[in-house]
Write a structure and sequence with these properties.
The complex is a heterodimer. Chain A is mostly helical. In chain A, about 75% of the residues lie in helices and about 0% in strands. Chain B folds into two domains: about 40-170 and about 335-385, D-Maltodextrin-Binding Protein, domain 2; about 170-330 and about 405-450, D-Maltodextrin-Binding Protein, domain 2, CATH 3.40.190.10. Chain B starts with a helix and ends in a 6-residue tail after the last helix. The chains are: A mainly alpha, B alpha/beta. Chains A and B meet through helix 1 and helix 11 of A and helix 1, helix 4 and helix 18 of B.
Chain lengths: ~300, ~450
């Protein structure tokens, strides 16, 4: 009788031993990924924070600690101030246009009809094209003298503007090119979300006499709100980090009229070799992205369906 | 216990990974102290202790075909010096980003190319080795064969060193489309040269007539206006033709706010926006397309056209004159071979530069690069380019006689020359965009850029 509990203890020990044994192997298996994450992601982030407190210049041997001087210099630099404004302008123009147009396209293409595959493919194709190739292609389309756009305008007697050499147009044109490139991805996300909206709700609302706009705003939109939230977050982050389109289209010009944050960072790091200043600008961009993402994340509770 | 072992494992593997990332202390990213002396590595033996061939690495811009051609061209040098060469190519647009990163990380090639706009930064930063001793050790290399001052101008440190040897210089000529001129019935640049009326005003007037003949045609394209890129390169010839420049001879003062500076810049502005004579900003139409009547470009562009199977006839003439006439020197940029002062094989790298910049080798490459060596510039090899090229007389008049007649100068780049260039470019773009008048734009540029000039 007294020996009966012993096997239970042994079984428990063996189980724990097996769990322990498995967990060790588990850690070993994730270790390469974890180390890669540390070395490729975490270490550069830490290095960026550290460099931002120094006057590091890639082509100078000496580096000294300068505290928050880089941040002070940046915040008092009129070009950096304009760059932040232009980046936010880019985001504010792109975000609503991207969400509304991709949702509109998804609404049109969610149902199967003859030719819908062609349209879906045509709209999605720019997503898989290299962003640099895309930028160069559009630079030719927007050429002043012999570009496609101005040639078409000339055919109807209109003298087209210098699309890429105009301080007012440079950012909107860049937004347009970015919009056309990325809209296919958001459209696919919305098509998947729209196809998941329960048809029973729509049928019940139709029976109750709800109009199409009412059904869209009262049923469809709440049902796809998690997808809208996802698209908002991704588009915001991507628009704040825009670079290649600007580099290929306007090279930041005319003057600094189309400088955006990442282009400014690139210019500081590889044009001026001022890594300390570029790192400080990177940290500011990081903080802006974190701030906007946290803001959106907290606001989701008010309007995202299925969320607590 | 489980947590302890896990933590131990994580730390152990992290340590292993970080150790693997280290360089074992064999390399350093620090340049030599003061930047003006050879490193101890420069006196290291060039042969490896084991007798195995030493591998020299070279960074150049261009494509794989160029790398293969250089590898072949260096075959004799490799055989004589028990070494091999590995040539890393890169698009010119990304070249300096890559080179700077590699220099900072201590992984740059033993030999690399640097253009004069960047040389001030690299040389004053101490990344380029002094080549003078190695170059002078071989009398046959003939240091006196180079154009005056072209070697000495790399001495940013003031120690009398030669920190780079030019393999290319960029004197430019006007390429013109014979077929288009004939179709338009407009007086040709060659006729203007012959009757002594070849000025910038005349050139823009001809361009205007071409555009009036066909509005889809561009009269003049002085630079790739799609992205101006480098306003100083683009404008230097015109400024000098009008007796001025953007800076004084030692780059200490901004001088473009002179009468000639404003006049010449205004002339180009008017050619773009009033005469419709010049391609507008934001246009990339190339001469090769046949839609440009006159384009300014460098010697090697002839090869692009000759091998480009164009369906029109073309020729070249010297650049036009301005108010300064023959006293307005032509501008040139230079591209240099430099040895990595922090590399493992500085002496061998310096010898390689001496070899590839000898008159024989530069003659071999003269179809691609115009070299500031008198012996190369007057050679039959350079002038007789063969079928599909302009006549030897045209080439001589455009690229050799014009230099002899007007002279040739570059800029004394400052350590912050890149920033000066960027600022100049930005303000020129703002002038083209209409944000400033020419005069106000130049005044604003002066205020913004003076900080980057030599102090």
């Amino acid at each position: 009788m007294t020996t009966k509990p012993a096997p239970k203890i042994q079984r428990g020990k063996r189980r724990r031993s097996l769990e322990y044994h498995d967990s060790i192997w588990g850690y070993c298996f994730i270790m390469p990924m974890f180390l890669g994450f540390l070395v490729i992601t975490i270490a550069p982030i830490i290095a960026t924070f550290v460099f931002s407190l120094t006057d590091k210049n890639m082509l100078r041997p000496d580096t000294t600690f300068v505290g928050l001087k880089n941040y002070a210099d940046l915040l008092s630099d009129p070009i950096f101030q304009a760059t932040v404004r232009q980046t936010l302008q880019f985001t504010l123009l792109l975000l609503p246009a991207n969400v509304i147009i991709s949702l509109l396209l998804a609404s049109l293409l969610k149902d199967k009809f003859k030719g819908c595959g062609f349209f879906r493919t045509a709209i999605f194709t720019p997503v898989v094209i290299s962003v640099t190739v895309w930028g160069v292609l559009w630079r030719y389309i927007f050429q002043t003298d012999n570009g496609l756009v101005n040639s078409l305008l000339k055919m109807v007697g209109i003298q087209g503007p210098q699309w890429l050499f105009n301080t007012t147009l440079a950012i909107p044109v860049s937004v347009f090119v970015t919009l056309v490139k990325g809209i296919g991805m958001n459209m696919v996300i919305f098509i998947a979300a729209l196809q998941d909206v329960p048809t029973e709700y729509m049928e019940a609302a139709a029976l109750d006499g709800a109009s199409k706009p009412r059904r869209f705003f009262s049923i469809t939109l709440p049902c796809i709100s998690p997808s809208i939230f996802l698209v908002l977050i991704l588009t915001t982050i991507n628009s704040l980090r825009v670079f290649a389109q600007i580099k290929a289209l306007t090279n930041g010009g005319p003057g600094t009229a189309s400088y955006v944050m990442v282009y400014y960072i690139y210019q500081m790091a590889f044009g001026s070799y001022k890594f300390g200043l570029a790192s400080a600008a990177s940290v500011i961009l990081f903080l802006i992205i974190v701030l906007l993402t946290v803001l959106q994340w907290n606001m989701r509770k008010r309007w995202v369906y299925h969320e607590d | 216990m489980k947590k302890t072992i896990s933590l131990f494992l994580v730390l152990a593997m992290l340590l292993a990974a970080l150790s693997a990332c280290g360089d074992g202390g064999s390399a350093t990213s620090n340049p030599p102290a003061g930047g003006n002396t050879d490193t101890p590595a420069s006196s290291a033996p060039t042969d490896s202790p084991s007798g195995d061939p030493v591998e020299l690495t070279i960074s150049i811009w261009g494509d794989e075909a160029r790398a293969a051609a250089f590898t072949e061209s260096l075959a004799d040098f490799c055989a004589a010096n028990n070494c091999t060469v590995t040539i890393n190519t890169c698009a010119v647009a990304d070249y300096y980003d890559k080179l700077s990163t590699q220099l900072g990380a201590g992984t740059a090639s033993d030999v690399f190319w640097v253009a004069d706009s960047k040389e001030g930064t690299y040389i004053s930063g101490g990344w380029c080795a002094n080549l003078r001793d190695v170059l002078e050790a071989d009398a046959a290399w003939d240091i006196g064969d180079f154009y005056e001052n072209v070697l000495e101008r790399t001495d940013y440190i003031g120690d009398g060193g030669i920190y780079g040897v030019p393999f290319s210089f960029g004197v430019r000529a006007i390429f013109w489309n014979k077929t288009l001129f004939e179709a338009a019935g407009v007086k040709t640049p060659a006729e203007c040269v012959a009757d002594g009326t070849w000025t910038y005003e005349t050139m823009f007037d001809l361009g205007s007539q071409i555009n009036a003949y066909d509005s889809a045609k561009i009269g003049v394209r002085l630079w790739p206006v799609g992205n101006i890129g480098n306003a100083i390169n683009d404008f230097a010839d015109i400024w000098r033709a009008y007796g001025t420049d953007i800076v004084n001879s030692n780059s200490t003062e901004f001088t473009l706010d002179s009468e000639g500076g404003i006049k010449s810049t205004q002339l180009v502005y008017d050619a773009m926006f009033k005469q419709n004579a010049h391609a507008k900003p934001g246009d990339d139409t190339a001469f090769l397309s046949g839609n440009v009547a006159m384009a300014r470009d460098v010697f090697s562009y002839m090869r692009n056209i000759a091998e480009g199977s164009v369906d029109f006839e073309w020729d070249i003439v010297p650049q036009p004159y301005g108010d300064a006439g023959k006293d307005g020197p032509l501008y040139t940029g230079y591209a240099y071979w430099c040895a990595n002062a922090n590399g493992d094989h500085v002496e061998l790298a310096s010898k390689l530069i001496r070899y590839i910049t000898s008159s024989e080798k530069q003659l071999e490459w003269c179809g691609t690069f115009l070299t500031p060596r008198a012996s190369v510039m007057t050679s039959d090899t350079l002038l007789n380019r063969g079928e599909g090229y302009p006549s030897p007389e045209s080439i001589k008049a455009a690229f050799v006689d014009s230099v002899d007649e007007r002279g040739l100068t570059g800029y004394t780049a400052t350590a912050d020359w890149t920033l000066f260039q960027t600022t100049a470019e930005q303000y020129h773009e703002l002038i083209w965009a209409g944000s400033y008048s020419v005069e106000d734009g130049i005044a604003a540029l002066k205020e913004a850029s003076q900080q980057y000039l030599n102090r």
